[in-house]
Amino acid sequence: MKSNVLVAGATGNLGTRICSELIKKGASVRAIVRPSSDQEKLETLRRLGVEVEVRDLSRVDDIAESCVGINCVVSALAGLAEVIVDLQTRVLDAALKAGVPRFIPSDFCTDYNFLEPGDNRNFDLRRTFKSYLDSTGIQASSIFNGAFADILKYNIPVLNLKDKSIGYWGDKAHWKLDFTTMDNTAAFTAAVALDDSAPRDLQIASFQISPDELRTQVQEITGSGFSIIMMSSLEEFAAYIEKQRANDPAGEYELYAKWQQSQYMYSMFSTQHAELANGRYQEIAWVSGREYLETFVR
Q1: For residues 144 and 202, is the Cβ–Cβ distance under 8 A?
Q2: Neighbour-count burial for 63-82, b at 16+ CB within 10 Å, e otherwise
Q3: Which of 21, 41, 67, 198 could pair with 11 as two cysteines, CB 3.0-4.6 Å apart?
């Protein structure tokens, strides 16, 4: 029987990829979008074969109409509390009202279950939604992909191509960092959406690489020398982030405020994925660190 999957957040970078992967796997895909959605993005979805339904996302009843006959709802929504908590709650309530058996929340990040509340504002929002999700009894599966590999292209401290430096915190030059490409994340999410036996939590990573390994590989690819720098202790980093946040109250209303970006770095060096579910779906071709670096490091 053909699986029917509804995707919320389908116009986003990850959401569109998830829709594409679901279509490739033979699923029937429905996307719920706002009336104000970018028409070009909607046309992209339609060309993929997605059934696009414009809904009033402020009304549970309206969303529920799109959930009728759906086997799994996938949320790829991104935002602050009004999206990750409020809108996701309405989507979940609509799924429950329509009798949808499964739900995949927008937990595409480091596995925050092993982090202290307060360490990462955006993770705390997901934690708040998780509490409600787990209280409903719907079968849920969270996909934790670590950091999206794309961030390595943006001259972050972990890999600064402009300054030819590799940064780390604490004594963690050998600490394995979890990175997953958008395409690998989308392919895995599509497989989970069609897998009724999928567990509650799944950790994945296209590749796990430490700062010293990153330095070695980048030097081999470029033929240039890169310095490796201990930025500070993790305790000093945490204190810096706290001060940075206190001095930027406007950042509370920004998805990626400067201090939030620092919180992501702190989280990457505070926990790591120990039980990868990469082998669960044999059809996925996981990108190695070397393969990914070679696409942009020259």
Answers
A1: yes
A2: bbebbeebbbbbbbbbbbee
A3: 41
In angstroms, what CA-CA distances link 42 with 62, 75, 161? 19, 17, 36
Domains of the chain: 4-145+181-203+273-280 (3.40.50.720), 149-176+208-271+287-293 (no CATH)
Q: What is the pLDDT of residues 240-284, one digit of tens each?
A: 999 999 999 999 999 999 999 999 999 999 999 999 999 999 999
Write the DSSP assignment of 98-112 as a string of letters.
Answer: HT--EEE-S--SS-G
Q: For the segment 34-84, what is each residue's pLDDT rounded down to a tens digit?
A: 999 999 999 999 999 999 999 999 999 999 999 999 999 999 999 999 999
**Full-prediction pTM beyond 0.85?**
yes
- Write out pLDDT tens, residues 209-241: 999 999 999 999 999 999 999 999 999 999 999
The residue among 26, 103, 113, 121 whose CA lies nearest residue 63 is 103
CA distance 149 to 169: 19
User: Measuring CA to CA, which residue among 106, 128, 132 is closest to residue 117?
Assistant: 128
Distance CA 71, CA 101 (A): 6
Q: Largest Cα–Cα distance in the chain?
A: 59
Q: What are phi and psi of 160, to 5 degrees?
A: -110, 100
**Region 166-178 average pLDDT:** 98
Encoded tokens for 192 = 């989970």
Contacts of 274 (CB under 8 A, 6+ apart): 203
Paired residues of 168 in beta bridges: 230
* pLDDT higher than threshold 90 for residue 298: no
Q: What is the dihedral of CA 144, 146, 150, 151, to 10 degrees?
A: 140
In sequence order, the 6+-apart residues with CB closer than 8 A to the CB of 275 are: 203
- Residue pair 146/178 in contact by the 8 Å Cβ criterion: yes
Is 74:107 a contact under the CB 8 Å cutoff? no
